[in-house]
Design a protein that fits this description.
It holds the Pfam family NmrA. The chain is α/β, with parallel strands linked by helices and 319 residues long. The chain contains 13 helices and nine strands. The structure holds NADP nicotinamide-adenine-dinucleotide phosphate (NAP).
């Protein structure tokens, strides 16, 4: 089976590429910047130029392809292109896939779309889900929760750099997940016909509230956090909450993102059922504690090495 991966340079996409190559798939990546994607070529993927904002570049990328995994989205620093990428571009992609008789389309969507259709990206994702179903291309949709990878910038780094961390006054629980595990689900679905034409809500095994993540980072980093709270009522009337969706932009966007991905409704139970469908043992799933532990160990080792090099340099100067 030959795969086209869209968004292969992204946080999730790169894990999908790596695992697909490891599993022996023929992997092609649609990329808009060939130089930036060199690492994917070094891993063994074929690179082909394509840009979702230029629909005419899409059909040639699909020649000889059996299945498409779409893990692309407009970059948070590039919000002006959100409609061009996440709406016009995705419609063009789905139409091109239909013309090319693609046998499977895996679409990465987001949790709780219906409750937040006032947020443009959520509305677009919901619309693309509908277009995909209407296209009659055999599909699998994953509605994803937050990624562990985003938590480093949100919690670990501010604690280490003694910067404030903003949280809401609600105990919002999010079942974050490692992108390596999400990639596992995406690829497994290609081998499981019963996952065709289905939508799955995918999250990690445990819901985490901000205060728990902060405590974990404080313990591992050996430093206290500066916590600032914003009442949820204020967040909800802020224009950013209504206008944007992606974290990393600013505080209210990030908090809005957490509110969107909250898991009030027995999510963990449905997640465990999901693991059964995909024949994935929950023990294999990386836990947030372990993810952070590995991060802090690597970071502290690096800091020790840098410190060691500095001492050596100073010694050399003295000599
Ligand atoms: N991050 C989360 O916590 C989260 C939560 C729920 C759902 N999701 C969804 O999961 C998916 C993956 O998210 P992510 O965080 O891994 O995304 P990401 O790191 O922001 O990566 C986005 C990818 O899309 C590509 N892209 C952007 N504009 C493009 C264009 N015009 N043409 C072609 N490719 C383009 C980027 O390429 P460049 O490298 O060239 O920019 C990059 O490869 C997305 O659908 C996202 O909405 C994410």
């Amino acid at each position: 089976m030959s795969l086209l991966i869209v968004g292969g340079t992204g946080t999730l996409g790169r894990q999908v590429v790596l695992q697909a190559l490891t599993k022996g798939y023929q992997v092609r990546c649609l990329v808009r910047n060939l130089r930036k994607a060199t690492f994917l070529k070094e891993w063994g993927a074929e690179l082909v130029y394509g840009d979702l904002t230029s629909p005419e570049t899409i059909p040639p990328c699909l020649r000889g392809i059996t299945a498409v995994i779409d893990a692309s989205t407009s970059r948070p620093y590039d919000l002006s292109t959100i409609k061009q990428v996440d709406w016009d571009g995705k419609i063009a992609l789905v139409e091109a896939c239909k013309m090319a008789n693609i046998q499977r389309f895996i679409f990465c969507s987001a949790l709780n779309l219906e409750q937040f259709s006032n947020i443009p990206l959520m509305e677009m994702k919901q619309g693309i889900e509908i277009k995909l179903k209407e296209s009659k291309i055999p599909y699998t949709i994953f509605r994803l929760s937050g990624f562990y990878q985003g938590l480093i910038e949100q919690y670990a780094i501010p604690i280490l750099e003694d910067l404030p961390i903003w949280i809401t006054n609600e105990n919002t629980s999010v079942s974050y997940m490692d992108t390596q595990d999400i990639a596992k689900f995406c690829l497994r679905s290609l081998q499981l016909p019963k996952t065709t034409n289905k939508t799955f809500l995918l999250g990690g095994p445990k819901g985490w509230v901000s205060s728990e993540i902060i405590k974990l980072c404080e313990q591992l980093g050996g430093q206290s956090a500066q916590i600032k709270q914003i009442p949820l009522s204020i967040l909800k009337i802020s224009s950013n909450f209504l206008g944007f969706f992606e974290w990393g932009q600013n505080i209210s966007d990030r908090l809005a993102f957490i509110e969107i991905l909250n898991v009030e409704n027995n999510f963990s139970k449905s997640t465990i059922d999901l693991y059964k469908i995909f024949k994935i043992d929950p023990v294999e799933i990386v836990k947030l504690d372990d993810y952070f532990l590995e991060y802090f160990i690597r970071l502290l080792k690096r800091l020790r090495d840098i410190n060691f090099e500095d001492v050596q340099k100073q010694k050399n100067l003295i000599i």
